[in-house]
Specification:
The structure holds 2 protein chains of 2 kinds. Chain A is α/β, with parallel strands linked by helices. Chain A has 2 domains: 3-9 and 256-378, Alpha-Beta Complex (Aspartate Aminotransferase, domain 1); 15-251, Type I PLP-dependent aspartate aminotransferase-like (Major domain) (Aspartate Aminotransferase, domain 2). Helix content of chain A is 39%, strand content 13%. In chain A, helix 6 (158-168) links the parallel strand 5 (140-144) and strand 6. In chain A, helix 2 (37-56) runs parallel beside helix 7 (239-277). Chain B is α/β, with parallel strands linked by helices. Chain B has 9 helices and 11 strands. Chain B has helices spanning 8-15, 64-77, 82-86, 90-96, 102-107, 111-124, 129-136, 176-185, 205-213, and strands at residues 28-34, 41-49, 52-61, 154-155, 169-172, 192-195, 217-219, 222-230, 232-240, 245-250, 253-255. In chain B, the strands form 3 sheets. Chain B has a 5-stranded parallel β-sheet with strand order 4-11-5-6-7, with helices on one face. The chains are: A alpha/beta, B alpha/beta.
């Protein structure tokens, strides 16, 4: 088995979650909409799961809408809110470093009469309040800023952004997928209007997610049908998936503190030893306001895909912001937004780890990395040894 | 096909690249092709005797297939006459490697172009420096937005280097004083870019050495053509004169002395 350090892309499902899900495929297969006993059991299980997930972020059960994942939750939040409230205004603000789904949803809305402004970030990937204020107009109805960045791990000052939006009476949505399970998300303490979570990012099955929708927030559905989820998300509920997500939330709530402490230790070692041992290596993102499971580097003179291939040969799976490894051949929009040139974004290495990563995995990477970087630099016309 | 699903032959050339390095001498020509936006850069060196390529080396900044195609072309062209070598196409290189992922056919298959460039340079026996400097030796022109953002991120003078603390700063090259400023400001922020329309900086060599020791990023043969932002500077539009490409760079401060 290779060493997997790409938890940002996908996480394995916790075996305890799989165990909790299993009965719901056969013995307890019921449809919550049915009126017979097995349907009643399904309703009970569904509402129980809703309660557990609400508890995970300190929300009320009725504020949780199950979706097919984070992308759908983002669509429901932004398109659903924009369509419902277009009489109030047609202006939406997002940041330059949002998840690709948010960028593409924005493009869709632009084609449908909305205006979208993008807030730049500083060199560490932080959104500054002033730059949001600079963009607010009387037509601004919605702001969407990710809680933490999925690539470079920078954590935003959400409490300040929430205060600003309340003061200006603008609804705020946050894609919190990268932050969930690593940072405490408490919608009581941080009264945000809409929040996206995904099941897989807390070691639940993929294909499930939620939109947290604060009580008085009004949106239109984007999927029309039998009126499930209070009419906001039709379609028979994915009960095994939802049970899995609830179990994942339950486990994460208990184990989060201990887990993040362990991750912080890995992170600080990865950053210190890489920067110390490899000349002309740089950290992308913020040195301290960053997710505990993220270390993101660039190495001058080398390209990310060849770095990824070399590490794969050594049995280590990582990720890169290089254009050469993407479908579109565009470099990571997040790295570019932090002020990097294309060639620098090309040389990036993204290391994300999680529940099943051991210290030995980190040791192996730290052992192998300097040699791999050095070998690739020998081929490079852009790197001159000092 | 995913970008990483390469043929065994591509992986072999990636893992054990043939003929890596550079060549020097009067019988050597180099072909340099690349794209600052896409990011790949390739240099192919040829040594020619009696109209035949007797030695070849390469250096590449790029993905797995960029490295493999460069390695492959050194095997294909070695020993060939210049006329024979000129007939080698991108498709020849790709098929010798048992194919490339479709998405890579265009961007990472620069080797044939680099070889053609090297042969062209050998034949004209002009090193490309001459043409490049002539092309770009123009005075600094007006930058759109410069006066709109004056003192809102654009600076015509520097009062305190420390005021650029943590700011992504781009400095328009204007000789020794701007090189000096770049060095000083790099003590306060990790991000300093020096942009020059020239191929090399026209500053004393000790200043060049000092610059090399810092993390100042130098953009050669490039020019800022526009400064953009909302209320304050947020990004600049850069024109790469050599490749005639335009791209945006996010910055907080622009210094024009």
């Amino acid at each position: 088995m290779s060493i997997y350090l790409d938890y940002q892309s996908a996480k394995p499902v916790d075996p305890r979650v799989i165990q909790a899900m299993q009965p719901y495929y056969y013995e307890r297969f019921g449809n919550p909409s049915s009126l017979h006993a097995i349907g009643d059991h399904a309703t009970e299980a569904l509402e129980n799961a809703r309660g557990i997930i609400a508890d995970f972020i300190n929300a009320q059960a009725k504020e949780i809408i199950f979706t097919s994942g984070a992308t759908e939750a983002n669509n429901l939040a932004i398109i659903g809110y924009a369509m419902r409230n277009r009489k109030k205004g047609n202006h939406i603000i997002i940041s330059e470093i949002e998840h690709i789904s948010i960028h593409n949803i924005s493009k869709f809305l632009e084609k449908n009469g909305f205006i979208v402004s993008k807030v730049p970030v500083n060199q560490y990937g932080e959104v500054t309040l002033q730059k949001i204020i600079d963009r607010i107009t009387k037509n601004t109805i919605l702001i969407s800023i990710g809680w933490a960045n999925n690539e470079i791990g920078t954590i935003q000052r959400m409490a300040d952004i929430i205060d600003l939006c309340r003061e200006k009476n603008i609804v705020l949505h946050s894609d919190a997928v990268a932050a969930q399970g690593l940072l405490k998300l408490d919608v009581g303490q941080n009264p945000i209007d809409m929040l996206t979570l995904s099941s897989n990012d807390i070691y639940g099955p993929s294909g499930v997610g939620i939109l947290y929708l604060k009580n008085d927030t009004r949106i239109n559905p984007i999927i029309i049908g039998g009126g499930q989820e209070n009419g906001l998300r039709s379609g028979t509920e994915n009960l095994p998936g939802i049970i899995g997500m609830a179990k994942a939330a339950e486990i994460t709530k208990v184990e989060m503190t201990e887990e993040t402490e362990r991750f912080l230790k890995y992170r600080d070692r990865l950053i210190k030893e890489t920067l110390d041992n490899i000349p002309k290596s740089y950290l992308n993102g913020h040195p301290s306001r960053r997710l505990p499971n993220n270390a993101h580097f660039r190495f001058s003179g080398i390209e990310g895909e060849s770095l990824l291939l070399s590490l794969k040969d050594k049995g280590i799976d990582v990720s890169t912001g290089s254009a050469c490894s993407s479908k579109t051949l565009e470099p990571s929009h997040t790295l570019i937004a932090t002020g990097l040139l294309h060639e620098e974004a090309h040389g990036s290495l993204e290391i994300t780890y999680g529940r099943f990563t051991t210290e030995k995995d980190i040791d192996t990477l730290l052992d192998v990395l300097p040699g791999v970087v050095n070998n690739l630099r020998k081929l490079s016309p852009l790197y001159k040894e000092e | 096909m995913k970008s990483t699903q390469y043929s065994e032959k591509v992986l072999d050339h990636f893992r054990k690249p043939r003929n890596v390095g550079v060549l020097e001498g009067e019988d050597v020509a180099v072909g340099r092709v690349g794209n600052p936006v896409c990011g790949d850069l390739m240099e192919i060196y040829i040594r020619v005797k009696d109209n035949k390529i007797i030695d070849m080396k390469f250096k590449t900044f790029g993905c797995g297939s960029a490295i493999a195609t460069a390695s492959m072309i050194t095997e294909l062209a070695m020993g060939k006459t210049l006329e024979q070598a000129l007939t080698i196409t991108r498709n020849d290189v790709a098929s010798e490697l048992d194919g490339l992922p479709p998405v890579k056919m265009h961007c990472s298959n620069l080797a044939a172009d680099a070889l053609k460039e090297a042969i062209k340079n050998y034949k004209s026996m002009k090193k490309n420096e001459v043409a490049a400097t002539q092309k770009n030796d123009q005075a600094i022109r007006n930058i759109a937005g410069e006066y709109d953002f004056l003192n809102k991120g654009v600076f015509h003078k520097i009062d305190e280097y420390s005021s650029f603390n943590d700011k992504r700063t781009i400095i328009v090259d204007n000789g020794e004083k701007t090189a000096q400023a770049a060095i000083e400001i790099s003590k306060y922020t990790p991000r300093v870019v020096l942009v020059t329309h020239l191929r090399t900086l026209s500053v004393k060599s000790d200043l060049k050495i000092m610059l090399n020791k810092t993390d100042v990023k130098i953009l050669y043969e490039s020019r800022i053509i526009e400064i953009k932002g909302v209320n304050t500077v947020e990004k600049v539009l850069i024109h790469d004169l050599n490749e005639d490409e335009k791209y945006e760079l996010f910055v907080d401060a622009v210094i024009i002395l």
